Amino acid sequence: MSTEDKPFFDDPNAALREIARNPAAYAHYLADFHRVVLDMQAKLEILQRETRVHCRGTRVEGDKMGQAFLRSFPVEKSLNDILKNLKNATAGMERSAHKRHAHDEKVKEVTKQRKEKAQLKARKSNPPLQAAPQNSVQQGVQSPNVGYGGPTSIYNLDRRESA
Predict the structure, then answer these.
(1) Residue 26 CB-density burial (10 A; 0-12 exposed, 13-18 middle, 19+ buried)
(2) What 3-state DSSP class applies to 14?
(3) pTM score, whole prediction
């Protein structure tokens, strides 16, 4: 069996599947198409100018003013439509590459947010135990705040209501 009879890949879409998974490869692949389309666009713009000059300059004996222009109009319009579609295609490729990258960033952000949310939920359902404060009261010695622990003056109330 020769190599011409056997396909290059067992699955012809395997390479594109790998490109679709990687945003950098996706952008690189679209950039290659973008270059080709821009090259086509530049060549078609030159063709458009030359066609316009030739078609508008082609006059038939007995033509009135503007008849050559009217005959050339459908040809010019078809080339203008092609160029407009190519410009939309290049803009679409650029948008697609940016949106693919943004999608990957958003996926990373969503997983990070979900992980944080799960941790927060786990903390709420199982709060960590806090140890009781240690009283370092020595035997026989009383602490200075025996009895009332509130303010000693009306000026030290700190927004508490007085009696």
Answers:
(1) buried
(2) helix
(3) 0.56
